[in-house]
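Structure first, sequence second, as always.
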């Protein structure tokens, strides 16, 4: 086994951050290969060398190439079952998969209006009514899980569901989204996780993508 995770700049590439967190948490040795999306003139052809889908992340394991963030997290879970990246209880596992899939396919306004930019901050951002509804839905999803299992992570211990929702935690900080109760506590817990702290350092060193920084200057 020789794992290489192909990612975009981790400050911005929310889909890349998700399996990066899962891999880090798994304890499996892996290398990170960053392609400077939108900055490197060859970025698109470089991504295509790893996946015909033309998007990152991609996990390379010897001759195998796995694209799609959630599929990569599933593969990591199979390689490192001891990390228990999914809850052990079947019903909880079903719910963790459901809310992870909801993240993958949903929240278009949140994703569109609150682009991920881990090191940027603004307090003047006003989300649309649609984005506000999605923020409320995220809080509801978090609260239901935290109330059911008592936290501090969505399913008690850290799982793929936390990896899938972390970019939203980061967006809420970037855009000054005010949270209360369970949602606020959950975000505080995530910001204390050592792997999240490691991501913050990498995000700080990411290449700058001017069009993604423009709303903050
Ligand atoms: N559903 C995919 C989404 C991947 C995706 O959209 N990645 C972005 C970077 S965060 C990308 O490669 N963008 C380049 C492009 O769309 O050309 C996943 O979960 O991995």
């Amino acid at each position: 086994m020789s794992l290489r995770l192909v990612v975009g700049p981790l400050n911005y590439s929310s889909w890349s951050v998700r399996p990066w967190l899962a891999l880090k948490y798994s304890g499996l040795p892996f290398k990170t290969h960053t392609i400077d999306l939108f900055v490197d003139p060859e970025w698109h052809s470089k991504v295509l060398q790893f996946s015909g889908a033309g998007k990152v992340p991609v996990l390379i394991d010897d001759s195998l190439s796995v694209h799609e963030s959630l599929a990569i997290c599933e593969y990591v879970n199979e390689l490192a079952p001891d990390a228990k990246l999914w809850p052990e209880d079947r019903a909880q596992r079903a719910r963790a998969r459901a809310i992870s899939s909801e993240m993958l396919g949903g929240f278009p306004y949140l994703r569109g209006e609150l682009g991920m930019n881990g090191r940027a901050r603004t307090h003047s951002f006003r989300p649309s009514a649609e984005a506000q509804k999605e923020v409320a839905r995220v809080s509801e999803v978090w609260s239901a899980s935290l109330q059911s299992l008592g936290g501090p992570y969505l399913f008690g211990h850290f799982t793929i569901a936390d990896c899938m929702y972390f970019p939203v935690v980061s967006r809420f900080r970037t855009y000054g989204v005010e949270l209360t109760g369970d949602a606020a506590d959950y975000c505080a817990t995530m910001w204390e996780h050592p792997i999240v702290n490691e991501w913050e350092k990498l995000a700080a060193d990411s290449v700058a993508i001017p069009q993604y920084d423009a709303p903050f200057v």
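Margin note: The pocket of glutathione is lined by residues 8, 13-16, 37, 54-57, 68-69, 104 (CB under 6 Å).
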